[in-house]
Design a protein that fits this description.
Keywords: 4Fe-4S, Coiled coil, Glutamine amidotransferase, Glycosyltransferase, Iron, Iron-sulfur, Magnesium, Metal-binding, Purine biosynthesis, Transferase
Strand content: 25-35%
Family: In the C-terminal section; belongs to the purine/pyrimidine phosphoribosyltransferase family.
CATH architecture of the largest domain: 4-Layer Sandwich
CATH topology of the largest domain: Glutamine Phosphoribosylpyrophosphate, subunit 1, domain 1
Distance between the termini: 10 Å
EC number: 2.4.2.14
CATH superfamily of the largest domain: Aminohydrolase, N-terminal nucleophile (Ntn) domain
Structural class: alpha+beta
Helix content: 25-40%
Pathway: Purine metabolism; IMP biosynthesis via de novo pathway; N(1)-(5-phospho-D-ribosyl)glycinamide from 5-phospho-alpha-D-ribose 1-diphosphate: step 1/2
Cofactor: Mg(2+); [4Fe-4S] cluster
Amino acid sequence: MSEFEKVTTGLGEECGVFGAYDMDGGDVAPSVYYGLFALQHRGQESCGIAVTDTYGERKVHSKKGLGLVNEVFDEESLQELKGNLGVGHVRYSTAGASRAENAMPLVINYVKGILAIAHNGNLTNAIELRHELEYTGAIFQTTIDSEVIAYHIARERLNVEKAEDAVKNAMKKIQGAYALVVSSPRKMIGARDPFGLKPLCIGKRDNTYFLASESCAIAAVGGEFVRDVEPGEIVSFTKHGMKSDKTMAIDPKKQARCIFEYIYFARMDSVIDDVNVYHARIVAGKALAESYPVDADLVVGVPDSGLVAAKGYSEQSGIPYGMAFHKNSYVGRTFIKPKQSQRESSVKIKLNVIEEVVKGKRIVMVDDSIVRGTTCANIIKMLKKAGAKEVHVRISSPPFLHPCYFGTDVPSNEQLIAHSHTTEQIREMIGADSLGYMEVDKLKNMVGDLAYCDACFTGNYPMEVPGRDVSLAFE
């Protein structure tokens, strides 16, 4: 699927991972299903669940496919997934094409049994590692870098006693961003890259442990949030409980959480690394109101991730907050159109302006980002057609100037409108009456003392990055 065939309201998502281990032996597939359902915003392209019974034959039963969670699974298919240890995944393609075989979890049969692996993120050295494996006889079934991780874990497992040590040895070789949930015949293992670029947290309900990309998924299955997996930490769960290994951790000052989790990716009811996402977006909106005040009648947010920032702008500026858009909830964040020319009509399918709210008013429209500018221009056009007198655009992120190598689908420089145009040129192109972006130095207000990655805005990458776009490497 080319970049132009993805129709989104902004950026491509990341992915979502979820794991469940019931120590009492109960089936976990329904819990994994609901966990993935709560993470659907992180990827709508494909999904999958793999389960195993740690007490029985230890076979892995899996089902995956292209589409949303409720399209791929039904009651019957969940009943067939018998097992007390399960791994699930929702996917948005960053590396590797959109094909059924690239759906996760990956299930690998090898000498020591069966591994199932779900991965959120992108490796920066995937190409070299893949070539190295191919030249020693590895045969790849997919075009995703997650398979490179799975092979390295399987190989390392032959040299060590415990599966979690195999994960640790694999982590010494892989570079980039990753949150991993791995099931071996008797264990569930979670691992987070040393920079903490991707989120991962732990939850518990009775005698069932959960791993999830976001805390909202733990709440969705009636679990209690325990804590975040720390950057560089490996956690393992067996019938004896949980163990932790932090030997891969790095200096906290060098950690680099993805700031875009707080701006856009995460659901507003999640808490990541002790930072409440809702609060972070309120702070962002307030910062925008301080930096770019304007005389206006109403502040509105573009659903979904612009809504809370708009509320923050309203609170700081004293301008009333209103709901100007109806969003069709039955269209995923991403859906496919055959031609770029159909991008405009697809925006209207997803969003409709409520004329009564905006007619005759000067509007402040808050959104999370401008990527190419197409979507933003269409929304402004819709607002003005509905009678808005003025539309002042405020963006709760700085301009995108650099590609992301860590699993966020920020397009190449040529497609980033801010890369080749000034703010004033962009304002003119999208038809806004004024335009203000979040200032880079105010991002820190959103997350307090947390060390974060803002490379897509500044070019300051937390590690060495490849000279070319790794996300195109395996296509």
